[in-house]
Amino acid sequence: MAQTTVNVRMDEELKKQAEALFADFGMNMTTAFTIFAKAVVRERKIPFEITASDPFYSESNMANLKKSITQLNEGKGLVKDILEVDNE
Fold this sequence. Notes:
Layout: H1 12-24, H2 29-43, H3 59-73
């Protein structure tokens, strides 16, 4: 299949951020746009969302949360109330 070149204009900072994110996904800008174009043509709509994983749900953070829950359940934690203060 013959290849062609597509030029895309975008904000320089957006390009840098997109390239960094695509690198996290293990791909470059060309691969990401090709995947997008193929999916759009196949589905005849914007068919998917690629998102970076939320660090809150990382294995290490989930382990810390489980440890904290265990400590609280065993009475080893410190529970504090949140007090709202009216600044008026």
